[in-house]
Amino acid sequence: MEKVNVERFDELLKGDKTVVCDFFATWCGPCKMLAPVMEAVSRKYADDAVFVKVDVDESMQLAARYGITSIPVIAVFKNGEQTAKSLGYMTKGEAEEFLSENL
Predict the structure, then answer these.
(1) What's the whole-model pTM score?
(2) What CA–CA distance (Å, rounded) separates 19 from 9?
(3) Domain presence at residue 30
(4) CATH number assigned to the domain comprising residue 15
C-alpha cells in the first residue's frame, strides 16, 4: 500500500478507481495490528480499488477534512466522495466483508 500525502490523495480521488484509505499513525497500536490485514486484503481487491495509507500526523489537513478523530479508520471513496468507513481494528475476515459490501 502506498503512503500518500494530501496532493497524491486528491489526485487519486479524481481518478476513475475507488480509493480505500487507511488513516493511521505510527504510534497507534491498533493501526500497527491492522497494517498487515490491509496489506493482505489490498492484494485480494487490487482490481477493484486503489489502496493507500495516510499518516494523520503528517497529513492533518486530510484527517480534519474527513473528520478523523480516532484511528485506525478505513474509508472508501467513490467518485471523490466518502461512501463508507470503519473505525478500529478488524480481522482479515471482517475487512474482506467490509470491502465486499462497500466496493
Answers:
(1) 0.95
(2) 9
(3) yes
(4) 3.40.30.10
Instruction: Please report, in tens digits, the pLDDT of each residue of the chain (103 residues total).
Output: 999 999 999 999 999 999 999 999 999 999 999 999 999 999 999 999 999 999 999 999 999 999 999 999 999 999 999 999 999 999 999 999 999 999 9
Domain that holds residue 32: 2-95
Residue 54 covered by a domain: yes
Give the C-alpha separation, 97 to 66, whole Å.
23
Whether 101 is covered by a domain: the verdict is no
Q: Which three cell numbers stand for residue 26?
A: 505510527
Asked if 21 is an active-site residue, the reply is no
Domain count, the chain: 1
Cis omega before residue 30 (within 30°)?
A: no
Catalytic choice (31, 41, 52, 76): 31
Of residues 12, 19, 20, 28, which has the active-site annotation? 28
